[in-house]
Design a protein that fits this description.
Blueprint (H helix, E strand, L loop, with lengths): L3 E5 L3 H13 L3 E5 L2 H10 L4 E5 L7 H11 L4 E6 L4 H9 L4 E4 L4 H39 L3 H16 L3 E7 L6 E8 L6 H18 L3 E3 L7 H10 L1 E11 L2 E11 L7 H52 L6 H15 L4 H13 L9 H4 L7 H7 L2 H9 L9 H5 L21 H16 L10 H10 L7 H13 L5
Parallel strand pairs: 1-2, 1-3, 3-4, 4-5
Antiparallel strand pairs: 6-7, 6-10, 8-9, 9-10
Helix pairs in contact: 2-3, 5-9, 6-9, 10-11, 10-16, 10-18, 16-17
Length: about 500
Amino acid sequence: MSQSILIVDDEEHIRRLCSEILKRESYQTFTAASAKAAVELSRLQHFDLLLTDIGMPGMDGLKLLQTIKDNQKEIASVVMTGYGTIDNAVEAMKLGAQGFVIKPFSQEELVQSVEDALERYRLFRENMRLKLLVPLFEVGKTLLCDLHLKSLLETFVRVVLKETRSDAAAVMLVDDRTNTIKPESCFILPDGFSKETFQRIEETFGRWVLEKKTPLILADEDSLTNEMKSFLHQSGLASVVTLPFVSKDRITGILILCKKHGNASFNQSDLELTSILCGQATIAIENAKLFEVIETKNRELEDFYFETVNALAQAIEVKDVYTGGHGDRLVDLAISIAERLNVSDEEKIWLKYAAALHDIGKIGVKETILTKPGKLTPEEYEEMKTHPAKGAEILREVKFLAPVVPIVYHHQERYDGKGYPSGLSGHQIPIGSRIVAVLDAFDAMTTNRPYRRGLPMDVAINELRRHSGVQFDPQVVEAFLQVISESPHTA
């Protein structure tokens, strides 16, 4: 396709002369008699080069050069000037012009100036493109590191929206089984756009892209069908790009980019950069999908492990009939407290096991002590105090429960350091142990025993408050009280 040149001069014979010379060199030429007319043309059509006089009535060539470059970022330029205005030509070069020609000029001088300007701009654009690719590859690495599909799509769409200066963007994923667009899509919809617009694009052009597996670019009016032109007109859009994500010869998603009238149409650089990002996003999306499958399998395996471990915890409650349901009650509350305290996801997993298993050491305590209706003797109490250590010893035999061992071992420590078995204090005590300690005490206070009825909740809450900072971690107590105030039936 021949390169297009916009010629601007208020003198008709200059415009005609330049046009004839450049047409003979196989350029496509357009002319404008004023800077104002040239600006209007630049809003309707892309030009490869602007050839403009500097001295014109109204808006001069320098101002025109600035305005055109605002509308079309990628355009080479040559200014025409007389001998007396060389300073203006230098100023034009500072504004980004690639060359100038001095009037009167010969045919050879004009053609050479245009060719040199186009070549300089080509090299400049190539250099800029390479510079731009470096950060885009960095973005690509970011995408590949994000294994959560929703945040991955949001990051991708925002990057593409910024890099292409689009007015709106969306990613629509394709169902592998039905080869249809999924309803869960990621949209960036500034004011003036609606999801209905994108849904119409999907209905009108999505099937075409799915079948052809190639991009569909709605920008060049001459190449559009009447249906496409009608759609753009009705939607208030100047140009639309629909790009497929292709993985192993199948479409996994579609990117939609839109620009309104007044915004420069998509250019080759936009398509190159977007294609690179789409390629990286395709790999990232496949990784995220695989990660979701693995996560699902891990959750299923985790549930199986926990159910098995919980069954072991039930064996404890068979021996100690007064704590029936004790472990189950603590698990849910422990996780709620941990979320309030911003405990890590990994620590929450081990806390769940610890809440269920913290009393497993009671298997090694005599049943007569566990079920004794009255106060324990000092000897009996000393034996009861061995259950954290016995529990830790049992759990050490199960390798995958290794992180649970210290939580169980220290769950009878006190915040003031007067607990057992190690006499740890404050934050020396594992956070899981501090959480279990509060829950264990509260559950013991509110559970009915043969020698006493369980305390009313308000009394037990006052006891926790009274011992906060002494026996219990005050932050854990506060978090626990917040949890039960919102869901009092859980305690």
